[in-house]
Queue: 4 jobs
Job 1
Amino acid sequence: MSDKDLDIEFEEAYEKASNMTEALPQDVMLRIYAYYKQATQGTVHADRMGSVDLRNAFKTNAWMQISHLSSDEAKRLYIETINSLTK
């Protein structure tokens, strides 16, 4: 798959995710968040962490756990996750 195809599929998955109406388990939402952030912004850095409230701490932790993934790997996992939820 070319980078252009991957980007198109990623955008399509983002649209699907944006239009989802069902509530998802928190762990799934955190995984989706982390894949999206890794795909679009790269590895999390301490200066990007923002506020230190509990919600953001969980989000940052989820992102840090997948920081070893490349942007393309994160995009693929994001696409797979969204597609598995919207079947």
Note: The mean pLDDT is 92.
Job 2
Amino acid sequence: MSADVDTALLARLCDFLRDSPTPWHATANMAGRLESAGFRRLEETAAWQLSPGDRVYVTRNDSSIIALQLPQDELKSLRMLGAHTDSPGLRLKPNAAKHSAGWLQLGIEVYGGALLGPWFDRDLGLAGRVHVRHADGRLEGILLNVAEPIAMVPSLAIHLDREVNAGRAINPQTQMAPVIMQSRQAELEPLLQTWLNEQHGLSDIEVMDFELGFYDLQPPALVGLERELVASARLDNLLSCFIGLEALLDSDGTQGALLVANDHEEVGSASACGAQGPFLMDVLKRVSAQLSDGTEETLVRLIQSSCMISCDNAHALHPNFTDKYDAEHGPAINGGPVIKINANQRYATNSTTSALFKDVCRSAGVPVQTFVTRADMGCGSTIGPITASEVGVPTVDVGVAQWAMHSIRETAGSRDVAHMTRALTAFLNRVHLC
């Protein structure tokens, strides 16, 4: 392994990726690390008592999280980091059980812009949250993670579909229901009750509803002769969640800092806990009211004195498809953080915020790259322009370069994990934002 690879950092990353099969698990794991580091949990339904120097966090929908580090002196600005907890995948439909050819299958809905081909012939687990009713009438949401190979989407043999390698379209309604059990009568609810009893000791319950999805059980791995690559499910965008959390915990605590990880980015961010929703602004309003006079002018001054780094992975130059990239803007894996730019505001980067991030990388001794899509191709987006539009905070969109975005297994550079962590830590420690 290369000498400049941080093995301890990568081990923590792989643990986080393995233990976070859903946004709810990712948020719970981030909350656990924050509490271990001394952060105090706030409840949105309770009155807040904040003081200079406080380290706090709050969740919404159990799938989005905001962590806040307040300075010891007056709060004049915030160094904000943004990411998202969700990834494309296969989610169960409410009435999921279906039977065909003697098999119990579970009907799915495609969440986000998933690459469907790589989902075939994988050992699949099932995870998410289940809402149950206890015998005393109490409703409770419970995390479930069936980390066993209980399902598979089998391919059709090439002998029965000779044109499969010619680019046949995949129909998720008719061709992607995972098989889970050889049975003509079995249903899903008894299985859920069994798993909840095994994992949480819950026997006298009624399953009321659930949000569950399949995931690949293949664990994260370091790949390549010199372990140059990290391969895993959900690198987009749990890699940014992990790096942002590492940076926050590594920072010196002298500056006002905020980490927000929103759910629902992959489906447009339009939800109560998404970047287009009010979660971040609600927190900023309450913080401003606690630590200042609470006027709208003071809040606007705080926001305009702050800066957001929206961190979501970037498209690395692919050695087999170099023609898909602008020749001057194809980021290299392990080449450092990537600034993402789009003249049509699909990314929120402008020259002011880009210059700031470049200066941050220089101070951290980290290389930096830029990505712009080809002029004859469309461009993706992320929480950056949405957050900038909703909140008004100056924003730069950056990310770690990766291959196979939205696949069931994605690939990034092992050295870039430390590169981005150092850059974001330097940003959180930076005294002046302009």
Note: The CA atoms of residues 373 and 379 lie 6 Å apart.
Job 3
Amino acid sequence: MTKIGRGFLSFCAALAVLLLANGSFAGETDRAQWIKLGDGQMEAGKYADAVFSFTTALAKGEDTAEFRAKRGWAQYMQGSYKVALFDYDEAIKKAPANAAYYNERGLIHHALADYGLAIADFRQSLKLNKTDAVVWANRAESYIRSGDREKAGRDLDQALSLDPNFTSARLQKAWLLINEKQPEKALLELSAIESTTTPDISFLEARAHARLALADWKGASADADSAITIDQQYDWPYLIRTQARRWLGDYEGSLADADRLLVRNRSNMWAMIERAMTLQFLGRTDAALAEMDRAIQEKIDPEQGWRMRAFLNFNAGKMKAALDDARQSATLKPKSPYAVARLGWAFVENGEAAQGEAECGKALTLAETLDAYSCRATARLLLKKFKAARKDAERARDLDKSVGIGPFLIGRVDLAQGNPDKALAQFDQAAKLNMYNQAGLLMYRGDAEKARGNMELARTHYQTARKFDFGRYSQALDERLASLPAQ
């Protein structure tokens, strides 16, 4: 949330405090001295002291809207939101046409997570003054928190039309686009920021996430490096970099970053997950599973531990173990769309496509997620419900256009329907995006080339798929290679 400036007397704040202490405010009332002292304390970040000074000033004269707002803002800045709200209620009663007071009260409601009330206050502020870009940005943030991203986007566009150099609003817009799975557009907003100011930590964080979503591992890693150079206290650069380094083949560097985070906080679940993923890339699935076992045993996040354990076993081709783990996850959180979708995947890979379709359908009643649509598309493909499978795959693609699972599944449907050329076009698209399942993509690319009669190219794809496979496709790849004519 962008906090507004309030026009306090910033000049000579420390001198004002010193003069008051010496009784040197010639010609000023005692009340004015307390107000000036409070202003100086606000500038110095001494909010509790400022509250005392403004309270004293209020006791020494007329109860005005200005003094109420001053004290209310000091209370807001020190985190005393409910008492700050009382002062702003009084200020607005005394000055109902003051746009700034509605904006400031909106910030308090936002801090209290009363987003509907915050939006109402920002709306009233904008009725009184439509040209304040900060208020448009403030309301956008409340819309984001309340789940209305469309209205948030419109408010941010309005803020930027009023002030194209409003850096924090443009950064908000970039994050909104990242969360809406539009990283390319987010990078355009970030480029506009970079042309006008020196990148800081917040800028680097947004750009690193956008680049990571686009599988720009080198760019994401470079942004993480820059952030660490500026300040090593943040966790996110190491989380970004451990993923990027893994995909770049720097497994030891990836483990080192995850280990740094775990030294800081032994219960950092995301660091444990990243470490487990890298261990599996190194062929150490048992060690990867041990990471999740610790998360489960130490009750760091048991449901996610079981779910990630299911995923690791799934990748390793241990389908029965993956199903057992997924059942544990769904038992702990039966209303989690991610846990239920993982259970659906496990059924699909254990040859129970109809049960998998049902579970993933159940997950979709809880929330529309990429994982649930992908799971159901795969189940329906195996059940030869091609039209329904394509519809689910297209929905998966549209939910997140930065990852390759949607085009990959559309290509599989095309291939199953006897269209290898169309399938290869989809596989090409998937390969350009963030695609975790490289082994599966190469295997089905090999199937498409085989269908076109390109046996040696199919062989090359199958052999390359083996390098990316952790065990999930081992038997299928052996069978496909054996089916090709001898060289």
Note: The longest helix spans residues 30-43.
Job 4
Amino acid sequence: MTSHIAESKRRGGFTLVELLVVIAIIGVLIALLLPAVQQAREAARRMSCGNNLKQIGLALHNYHDVYNTMPPGGFRYISDTPSSTNENTAFGATSHSYLVAILPYVEFSAMADQFNDIQGWRGQPNRRVVIAVPQSYQCPSSTLPRSDHADETLLDSGSTVIGQMYAGHYVGNMGPIGSGYKLFCKKPADSGSAPNCNSGNEVSDQGILGANSKIGFRDITDGTSNTIMVGELSTNNYPTGEAAPRAWSRGCPDHSCGMAKNVKFGINIQGFVSGNFNNMSFSSMHSGGAQVLMADASARFVSENVDMDAYLATASRNGGEVRTVE
């Protein structure tokens, strides 16, 4: 009897080898399942990002219903002359982005009311607004929720940092840059609000959300389902340069547009380098490409291997091209 009890006790536990084998099996299963879990999470984030673009698209359509035009990608509210309390003394200091204009249509009317119409995006009152951000203005896959630009840090009492302005991840399409496409320019000797296209910060004249543009659906003769209205810009993973997403309220002061970009380079190619600030590529943390919003308020994914002729054609609202990205 005693021998039988002892034998039962010996058989009741695991040996060290058996325990190590079980742990190893569990580790292998976790290693196999983890990528699938991460892929599922990224798929959910990508879907959420597409839904953000659709919300922005509906807001732009509602804005158009009220004003019979789309807002500019970057615009000035009242005057070209900065107020005495505006920190930015350059031309276009009262510039704001299209994302400010559509705030009431993404259910952020209270935030819209906080913006000072005369001061620009760099003024202290408006900077304080941009240390918050509507959720639909940022891609959940991005690791860059705030601007990394030094001028977009809010200081209190002259030196204490109380917040970095939030970035916007969805920039307006100013249009294509390339042979046969038009630029919105002025001659260097001329005065006025158009940019000098010899300065390196050219602005396309064939998009939808340009610098001080007023484009209506009537002007999108290539078709709303064939024309890009907004593109994603939310990564630092460029082969060259730095993505540096800017504050979501930044318009086009001196025509260096923060929340509006040209289409000159392919997806995930051109980061921020001197002379190409307006030409930063649409980009994302989604594998293989980035999402865009078409003028009909539908969202689609564009491969980083996109045919450039089709891509430029889709960025143009009135080029008469028959090609578009699928």
Note: Strands lie at 74-76, 95-97, 153-156, 160-164, 170-176, 228-232, 260-263, 289-294, 299-303.
